[in-house]
Design brief:
Shape: globular
Order of helices and strands: HEEEEEEEEEEEEEEEEEEEEEEEEEH
Number of domains: 1
Helix content: 10-25%
Mean pLDDT: 82
Structural class: mainly beta
CATH architecture: 6 Propeller
Low-confidence stretches: 1-13, 19-35, 316-338
Strand order of the largest sheet: 20-21-22-23-25
Strand content: over 45%
CATH topology: Neuraminidase
C-alpha cells in the first residue's frame, strides 16, 4: 500500500509537469504585442490666422514625444510650409511664401526665432525634402526668372547654395505639377509624383547621377510618395472614386500592397517611423499612428487648425506604453469615416 501511494504521487507530479509545459506552449502560441509610443519629434504647419500679417497663413509647430508616452507641442513662431528635418534633428528647413514669391529657410530648433535664407533666387517652390546625408535639398518649382511652364525638380547644395534643375521634362506649353518628392535612404535617388496629360499622376524614380527617369506606377492617380527608412518600399496615396487608399510599393519587385482607405477630402500627410513598422498621418486637425504589423490605427492628439505637411525626426525606439490615446482597428475608423 505504501508503494502504491508513492506511485500515485509520482504520477501526479508527472501530470502536473505536463500540464504546466502545455500551458507554457499555449501562452507562447497566443498573439503577443508590445505597444510602443512614438519617439522623437514631428514638425508640421498649421493653417491659422497670423496676427502680424493680418490674414490666414501657415505657421510652423513642433510636437515632442516624451519617454512616458506623453507629448509637448511648441509653436515655432515662424510662417512656413513643407517643413523638413535635417538628419541630426537640430535644423528645420521650410518654404516661406511672401509677396507671391518664396524662399527656402532654415532655423536652429534651439533658437527658432532666427532664420537663415538658403536659396539665393526667389521663385515658386513646393514639396521640400532633405537628403538623408544632410547635404542637399530637393524641391520643385520655377525661379522668378522663369515661366510657370518651366516647373522642374531642383537639387540645392546646402553648403554652397548652388541649385540645379535635375529634370528636363518637356512641357509643350502647359504647366505640369509635381505632387510630392522623397529621397532614397542612400541619397542617390528621388521618387516623385508628376501630373501627366489625361489627368493622371504617376510615380517616377530619378537617378541623380545619370539623370535617368524610370516609371514606377502607371494608369492611376498616385501622389505624396514617402520612401521607407530601409529603402525597400515607398508609401503613397492613390485616388479612388469613393475613397483614396494608402499603398506601399516594393521598389525592386513593384508589388503594390493596399493599407487602408481615407476620406477623399481629408488633408492628409504621412511619414514613416524610424523602424518602418508604423506610419504617422494627419486627418484634418488630428494625428494618427498606424501600426503596419497589427493593422491598427490610434489617435495621438488633435490640434487647432488644418495640418499641412509632416516631418518626423526619430532618434530611437522606446518600448513605452501609450497614454490617453484612442486605439481601434482601422475597420472601425473606416466605418466612422463613412
Amino acid at each position: 500500500m505504501k508503494n502504491k501511494n508513492r506511485h500515485l504521487c509520482v504520477c501526479n507530479v508527472e501530470i502536473g509537469k505536463r500540464l504546466c509545459f502545455g500551458l507554457i506552449l499555449v501562452l507562447l502560441c497566443l498573439p503577443f504585442t508590445v505597444e510602443a509610443a512614438p519617439t522623437g519629434r514631428i514638425a508640421y504647419a498649421l493653417s491659422g490666422f497670423n496676427q502680424k500679417l493680418g490674414r490666414l497663413d501657415y505657421n510652423l509647430h513642433m510636437t515632442t514625444f516624451t519617454e512616458d508616452g506623453d507629448f509637448k507641442t511648441t509653436p515655432l513662431n515662424q510662417s512656413g510650409m513643407y517643413p523638413a528635418w535635417g538628419p541630426k534633428g537640430d535644423t528645420l528647413y521650410f518654404i516661406r511664401l511672401a509677396a507671391a514669391e518664396s524662399h527656402i529657410f532654415s532655423i536652429d530648433i534651439n533658437n527658432p526665432r532666427k532664420k537663415t535664407q538658403i536659396t539665393q533666387i526667389s521663385g515658386t517652390y513646393r514639396f521640400l525634402a532633405v537628403s538623408p546625408n544632410g547635404k542637399k535639398l530637393a524641391f520643385n518649382g520655377w525661379t522668378r526668372e522663369q515661366q510657370q511652364q518651366e516647373n522642374q525638380i531642383w537639387v540645392l547644395d546646402i553648403e554652397t547654395g548652388e541649385m540645379e534643375a535635375v529634370t528636363a521634362i518637356p512641357h509643350f506649353g502647359r504647366t505640369f505639377f509635381f505632387y510630392g518628392i522623397t529621397w532614397a535612404p542612400n541619397s542617390k535617388r528621388l521618387a516623385f509624383s508628376l501630373e501627366r496629360p489625361g489627368g493622371l499622376e504617376q510615380l517616377y524614380l530619378l537617378d541623380l547621377e545619370t539623370k535617368e527617369i524610370e516609371i514606377l506606377t502607371e494608369l492611376n492617380i498616385d501622389y505624396y510618395p514617402v520612401w521607407s527608412p530601409d529603402g525597400q518600399k515607398i508609401l503613397f496615396r492613390r485616388w479612388n472614386r469613393e475613397f483614396d487608399t494608402m499603398y506601399t510599393i516594393d521598389v525592386e519587385t513593384r508589388v503594390i500592397t493596399p493599407l487602408f482607405d481615407v476620406d477623399k477630402q481629408t488633408g492628409m500627410w504621412t511619414d514613416w517611423s524610424f523602424d518602418g513598422q508604423s506610419i504617422i498621418y494627419s486627418r484634418w486637425g488630428a494625428f494618427y499612428l498606424y501600426d503596419l504589423v497589427a493593422g491598427k490605427a490610434e489617435q495621438l492628439f488633435e490640434v487647432d487648425g488644418g495640418i499641412f505637411g509632416i516631418s518626423w525626426w526619430r532618434h530611437e525606439i522606446l518600448p513605452v506604453a501609450p497614454k490617453h490615446k484612442l486605439t481601434t482597428t482601422w475597420g472601425d475608423v473606416k466605418r466612422t469615416l463613412r
